[in-house]
Amino acid sequence: MGGSDAELVARARRGDVVAFEQLVLRHQRYVFNLAYRVLGDYAEAEDVTQEAFVRAWRGLPGFRGQAHFTTWLYRIVHNLCLNRLPGLQRQLLQAEPLEEVLANPAPSPPDLFEARERMAFLHAQLDYLPEKYRLVLTLRYLQDLSYAEIAAALDVPMGTVKTHLHRARRLLTEQLRQWEEHTAGDGN
């Protein structure tokens, strides 16, 4: 069982369903994580994951192997996510009700409140980064792709990838600094 992605792709292109199933098992976690990071919705990420592999199976005859299979697959996921993003923006801010957070007796209520406040802030900042910044951050730091792989997956120059990463980190750093100043000024 197994083999390299290239070997499995070659077998799958010849109609070997078992080889494609191995590719799915190998990459489904990464595909789901990418979709979830971009969309922020578990059910939507599951749908995108399933659709991405359906499209990959159907598209295998046209896959020339000029890029890694993962790069090609991430490109499919990226396009599917872009198609779904506008309808999901209203769901990104939904948070767990405070009563559920406070139901855990271990930490004190003020600690829970502060932790929840910090997590909500960070979640909002990531979710409100421009999609192009959020996507390159996800591919780089959560999927561990190289700059070249990100550039290929997104079909952009490598310099664009580096610029987007730099700007995303700068935005997050500035937002975190402002938030810390604001919360320190509140006496928290």
Low-confidence stretches: 87-107
Question: Could you tell me the radius of gyration in angstroms?
Answer: 20 Å
Helix content: over 70%
Question: How many helix segments?
Answer: 9
Largest sheet: none
Write the layout of secondary structure elements.
Layout: H1 5-13, H2 17-39, H3 42-59, H4 69-88, H5 98-102, H6 109-128, H7 131-142, H8 147-154, H9 158-185
Please describe what this structure looks like.
- With 188 residues, the chain is mostly helical.
- The chain has a domain of 91 residues: Rna Polymerase Sigma Factor, Chain: A.
- The protein is 76% helix and 0% strand.
- The chain is built from 9 helices and no strands.
- Helix 8 crosses helix 9.
- It starts with a helix and ends with a helix.
- About 11% of the residues have low confidence.
What would a concise description of this structure say?
The protein has 188 residues and is mainly alpha-helical.
State the main characteristics.
76% helix; 188 residues; Rna Polymerase Sigma Factor, Chain: A; mainly alpha
